[in-house]
Predict the 3D structure of the following.
Amino acid sequence: MLRTTLAQLRAHGARVLASCLAVVIAVAFVVATLVLNASAGASLLDAVGKPFTAAAAVVTPVRGTDLDGDPVATGAALQAAERSLRDLPAGRVAQVAADRSTGVQVQLPGRTGSTYAQADAVTAPGPLRWEGVLAGRLPAAAGEVAVSERTGAAVGDELTVTVVPSSEDGGESTERVRVVGVVDLTGDPTARYAGRVFATDEQLRTWDAPVTRLRVAAAGGAAAGPAAEEVLGAVAAAVPGELAAVSGREAAEERASAFTGDAAALTSVLLVFGAVAVLVASLVIANTFAVLLAQRTRDLALLRCVGATRAQVSRSVLLEALVVGLLASLAGAAAGTGLAAVVARVAADADSPVPLGTLQVPVRALVAGVVVGTVVTVLAALAPARAATRVAPLAALRPLVPAPVRSRGGLLRLVAGLVLTVPSAAALVLFSTRGALEPAVLAGAVSFVGVVLLGQRLVPAAVGLAGRLVRGAGVPARLAAGNAVRNPRRTAATATALLIGVTLTTAMVVGASSTRATAGDLLEAGYPTDVVVSSWEEPVDDALLERLRALPGVAGAVPVLEGEVELSTGGSTSASGVDTAAAAGVVRSQQRAPLPAPGEVVVAGRSAEALGLGDGQDVEVSSPDGTAVRLRVVVAPDSEQGTVLRTEDLLRADPAAPVSTAWLRLDDGLDPDAQARVVDDVTEVVAAALPSSGVSGVVAVRTAFDQVLTTMLLVVTGLLGVAVLIALLGVGNTLALSVVERRQESGLLRALGLTRRQLRALLAWEALLVAGVAGVLGVVLGTAYGLAGTSSVLAAEGPVVLDVPWAQVAGIVAVAALAGVLASVLPGRRAALTSPVAAIAD
Amino acid sequence: MPVPRPVPSPEVLRAGAPAVRATGLRKTYGRGDAAVHALAGVDVEFTRGEFTAIMGPSGSGKSTLMHCLAGLDTATAGRVFLGDTELTALRDAELTRLRRDRVGFVFQSFNLLPVLTAGENLVLPLQLAGRTPDRAWHEEVVTRLGLRERLRHKPSELSGGQQQRVAVGRALLPRPDVVFADEPTGNLDSRAGAEVLGLLRASVREFGQTVVMVTHDPVAAGYADRVVLLADGRLAGGLSDPTPDDVIDALRTLGA
């Protein structure tokens, strides 16, 4: 039988290859995900672990021992330890590096203010020196620095470095240094947080930088192995208990683990999509094998005629599935690795936040992909294989008569589907409206399984119903309506594969849209002001406000006063004074921090507690002239703004209250870059007028969030697109099967006068019916899941805004239907090319 | 009940013109030494309003001849005319339209589409052409078939004879220039076969329909007005108003 099976495979090679694209794509997806994850981990380890690559031992303070957080003491302990390490037997230690690090303020060329940067000592030449340069050289003398790319400084630039000493007694020191090099920090995610400055150890000493860690290199440079372990042991024995010694590898892994948490979460999300792709692929594979076997009904029957047993036929089919699954999975693993390489290259070029410089292909990723692909293929082929064994030997001698297929176990599925769906759907509604995420996810998953089971019954019924709608559209449409429900189980399987993809895509689109709407509201409530200008010394004068208002992109600016008020209930508090009418046009939300109406004082929940004030209580604010202003307290529990009075009330209580703050609103619809430019402009104008001031552009938080959501949505939609693509291959396969099974019918129709175009239209209608129904059902389900998902995630945070992007949702249905029709092109062409005589003669 | 006679297309009505004729018809499969001549030069005419049976031993080329005459298959050489229309000059789309409008078919098996009811199958060619059936003629055909009660049934709910009668009705309904029947009784028992053959003969006698039937059954051929004999892809004689015995004799001569 093995020989027969392999002969079959050779004969149908091209078709098998084309049909098993589903396996290839699904496996490629899984493998690419695993490879990218491993590569991200490896790249991260390479990048953040650079200083530790050559280190046999790394000594750092034990965490938690120094609760007071006194860095000097630790630095002293490290320095003491360094001296003792130098006494280790000569010939075993090649180099000991005592790394100094501190924070400095750097004024970069072309900028008005100073920015924070981390200053590190460059490792002395030796095996432990890890700093490489992209340009120039490393600093060799005091007054020279190398910088990271993030600073934007270039070789030859002059920087002003200001060091604020950690101890109280030392004075602030300022120094001009020259940039001699740019250090290579490629792939290090910390590189983007803040600028880095590298200088000599002597320079760092003058900047009062403490030693933060020790690195020890073993003689011979080995970072692992017996020599390194011996050094590690000696180091561990030499350092006091408040310090800990670990191997270089451990130090690198510990540092990387701070960042891999995100990568691991991303991987699990990706693997969920991988699982979806595999599930959809398994449905498609089952259909594919049904196609392959239907085409060979006579061959199989002939095998039975010449004496093959059922078990032999079954084994032959399963063996074929095994070979096909294995080959397709191998191809998929190769494709996935290639895909990962391409993604890594693109990501590296695009300076992605996830470092992907080092492509690592773990064997276990390849094995996992191949095993999953092969096992799923064989499992999916079980049902068609069983059907194949039922072929009667006489079928070889009879013309093909497609018997109506009755789905057994349908009732069981219906009952199981209802039992799973109804209670879990109710639970989903309940949990999601309460914002209980975990139970809602569970209920959602269970109900989806139920829906897929119900789909076996629901989908053919819906296709039948849709078929009635199109009956008026001509003979091909009417025939297609009948054909689409001839084999309910196959129709259901085909449509379900597409249904899953469409449902998940829609759920993501609707979920993201609702999340954006809801979170937008929440963020506006939490950060009601786009830009806040604060002055610490001089007041914000009207001239400055006017200049700010005149800036392009600034929609409005209101002054906010800052004063002290004495309360009749006892105690005093600092309070802000706003002009409610003007401020209402500047803040984006008053949901959390309402502006005071006449006769009101708005007190944030925390301040109200401290002051002993309750909502609705009347309080008198005393004025220096002896009179008192009577105000009603409005407690805003979630406000972050302390106590807010109307400007006139504050001025009566504290006539000297200066304008310390300005609230700005930017034009709507600015993209993040434009917003950043406006905030920069504001910063320039403010810095010029007020030396001691700060500008915070909260607007950036909102847009950044929006952008993250948009990017995420794009990525996720792309990922689910893989599932939809696989499902569409399934639609094509099912139609190919129909074409084979209905060869005689097609021949008869052609003889009776159905034109080729009409025959193609017939298949297109059939595809449209199945894909359209799957699309519509998927969109309806997906919308429900998307809304439930958003609600369960965000209901705890505040009122949920449900937003269905109708245009996009309609687009999904249109794409599914159109793609279905496209999938019918090849089978349709094949059907149309068959001559009527040949078909009838069969 | 007065029933209008079917009106064949004008070119066929022209006096003396045959409904179908073929000249020098050849059909060759394969090339060179492996070439098989299914039809090795056939000249034949079928008079309108006549019931003709094409007979011959297995492999004589009778089915191939019918397929070429009906525009289902293309000839290697020679010409086929339906009335004045040369089929051999038409492209696929034109042939399809011609089959739909001017030719009726009854096959040995698998005549009806399983997804359509008997009534829907009956009017399928007309609907493919976007035409509505002449109500009175539709009534007459349905009455003749004796299947009025069964029109709403799916083919799988009909007997073989009933299915075949629906197929004959479907072929007659568009009033084609010619009805081709390929072994129409091949899968039927003798009684059901007699019903179908009677129906075909009645369509010729009463409505002036032209019918060309391929068969290997001498009894079936006995229903025909004329028998054309085929052997090895060539004409091998003919019989007029044959009895089954005449046909058996003639076939025996061929086989010898």
Summary: The first strand of chain A starts at residue 57 and ends at 61. Chain A touches chain B at residues 399, 401-402, 404, 475, 479, 482-483, 486, 744-745, 748-758, 835-837, 840-841 (CB under 8 Å).
